[in-house]
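ugh ok fine here u go
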Amino acid sequence: MARISLNPNPTFKAMVEICRPGLEAERVEITFKHRTRDEMDEFIKQMAEMSIEDQVMAVAAGWELVDPFNLENVKLLAQNYITAPMAIRDKYISELIKAKEKN
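structure:
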């Protein structure tokens, strides 16, 4: 019997590579918010109006960093690791599309 629930967990975790200048990329576990297809379509439509930090806050529910997950720290992450917010957002979209393809 298949082990899939028609009501998936409200969050899922995935590893995101955060590039660090002069060092190897660091893999960070991010907890993401699940969205239905309709919710994802609506989110994609709204993305152009959102800052990259707001996009991260919209897709993520937490991270495994020492610093707490909040808008202030997401902004600090964006200032110090320029590609990190895009990596988080892109991984989220990739995970949902991958799940969509598998189902």
